[in-house]
């Protein structure tokens, strides 16, 4: 007679040891990769830390499943020639409560930690600068405070170590704003102003990539991002003579109550 599931004969201690060992090995392997590349904003280490926590939790869940599966396969394997049906099992209330409560705790923990991380990332420094982002099939353009809303197409300049609040206005379909080294990503939704906050921590040149399939030219919808010193940025923005075109300004004003203010003017210091 095979051992009954969850009887005293179940080798809990050995299985627990196997789970710990397997989870530790898996987590060690998965944590050894640099999944996301360079960390070039204040958000990046926080996001990567969140990812690491998820990797550890996933390793534990995966190890529990694999060890239980492996044990069941080995212990309850049918003898050769045994064509009989498996025993009808009605249910196990204790087991069902466990597999409901434990995942609920895990999911709530992940949700709570993500919330905390996002709050930290979006906490305003009081020294932030607003930049308007305009997306349309298949190009990006940008409006900057001061100088009657200076405008640049296909290239975004931002100062380093300053919190930037991007206000995003799609002109047609849904696009998404993503700079991988900054980690942050947000949809641009027509009719709604969406906001994302980032503080770049390294100067350099990056790519802004559209990550929402927005049509035929989606894969080429990119813009150059230049993170530079505050001084160099001020010089660059003051040299711009082009202003945000009227249709784009109209789109800013037509956007919904999510963020009702039009372009804000923040004086560069
Ligand atoms: Cu796209």
Structural overview:
This protein folds into two domains: 12-76 and 93-122; 129-254, Cupredoxins -  blue copper proteins (Immunoglobulin-like). The chain has a five-stranded mixed sheet. With 269 residues, the chain is an alpha+beta fold. It has helices at residues 12-31, 43-75, 93-122, 230-238, 246-254; strands at residues 129-136, 139-144, 150-153, 155-159, 164-170, 175-178, 185-188, 194-198, 204-210, 222-228. The longest helix is centred in the N-terminal third of the chain and has 33 residues, at 43-75. Copper (II) ion (CU) is lined by residues 175, 210, 212, 214, 218, 221. Copper (II) ion binds next to loops.
Q: What is the string of SSEs from the N terminus onward? A: HHHEEEEEEEEEEHH
Question: Beta-strand percentage?
Answer: 15-25%
* Rg from Cα: 26 Å
- Name the CATH class of the largest domain: Mainly Beta
Question: Can you tell me the residue ranges where pLDDT is under 50 for at least 5 consecutive residues?
Answer: 257-263, 265-269
Q: Examine the coordinates and then state which fold CATH places here, giving the name of the CATH topology of the largest domain.
A: Immunoglobulin-like
Helicity, as a percent range: 25-40%
What is the total number of structural domains? 2
What is the number of strand segments? Answer: 10
Strand pairing plus helix content: what structural class? alpha+beta
In the CATH hierarchy, what is the architecture of the largest domain at level 2? Sandwich
Strand order, biggest sheet? Answer: 3-2-1-5-8
CATH-assigned homologous superfamily of the largest domain: Cupredoxins -  blue copper proteins
Average pLDDT works out at 87
Morphology call: elongated
Output the number of helix runs.
Answer: 5
């Amino acid at each position: 007679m095979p051992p009954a599931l969850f009887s005293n004969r179940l080798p809990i201690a050995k299985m627990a040891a196997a789970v710990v060992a397997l989870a530790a090995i898996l987590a060690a392997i998965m944590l050894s990769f640099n999944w996301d590349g360079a960390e070039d904003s204040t958000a990046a280490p926080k996001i990567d830390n969140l990812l690491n926590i998820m990797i550890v939790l996933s390793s534990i869940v995966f190890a529990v499943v694999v060890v239980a599966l492996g044990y069941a396969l080995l212990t309850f394997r049918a003898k050769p020639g045994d064509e009989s049906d498996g025993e009808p099992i009605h249910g196990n209330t204790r087991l069902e409560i466990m597999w409901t409560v434990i995942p609920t705790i895990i999911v709530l923990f992940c949700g709570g930690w993500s919330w905390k991380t996002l709050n930290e990332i979006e906490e305003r420094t009081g020294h932030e600068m607003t930049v308007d982002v305009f997306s349309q099939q298949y190009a990006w353009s940008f409006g900057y405070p001061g100088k009657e809303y200076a405008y640049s197409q296909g290239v975004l300049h931002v100062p380093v170590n300053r919190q930037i609040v991007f206000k995003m206005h799609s002109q047609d379909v849904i696009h998404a704003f993503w700079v991988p080294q900054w980690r942050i990503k947000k949809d641009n939704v027509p009719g709604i102003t969406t906001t994302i906050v980032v503080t770049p921590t390294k100067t350099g040149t990056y790519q802004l990539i559209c990550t929402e399939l927005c049509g035929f030219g989606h894969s080429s919808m990119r813009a150059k991002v230049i993170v530079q010193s505050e001084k160099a940025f001020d010089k660059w923005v003051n040299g711009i003579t082009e202003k945000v075109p009227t249709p784009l300004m109209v789109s800013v004003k037509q956007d919904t109550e999510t963020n009702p203010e039009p372009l804000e003017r923040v004086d560069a210091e």
